[in-house]
From TrEMBL:
It comes from the Bacteria. InterPro entries: 23S_rRNA-intervening_sequence, 23S_rRNA_IVS_sf. NCBIfam families: four helix bundle protein. SUPFAM superfamilies: IVS-encoded protein-like. It holds the Pfam family 23S_rRNA_IVP. This is Four helix bundle protein.
Amino acid sequence: MDNKEFAKKLEYRTRQFGISIIKLSSSLPNTIEGKVIRNQITKSGTSVGANYREANRSRSKRDFKNKIKISESEASETEYWLEIIHDLKWVELDSLSLIVKEAKELLALFTSISNKL
């Protein structure tokens, strides 16, 4: 698989991740605390793909690296919020495990890409 094909597949994957985060966030409790975490995880979870898309349209290698680092950071933050949701037992743990796995994989991918730049 060449870089262009890899980038297209990863853009799709991060978009699907964002959609799964939005669906998850809509199932969180309708409390003040639930709304805060809903807002935080929705922003970080959708930002992973948005910044990766921007990286692929960057004007320079420096700009690309900066956007990749942002995607990495947002993936890490999303993983943190998923851990909070898990620890609070706010959603079915079986359904959460797939999203957590994907968050970890995306974080590993962006960390690897970042380290190669």
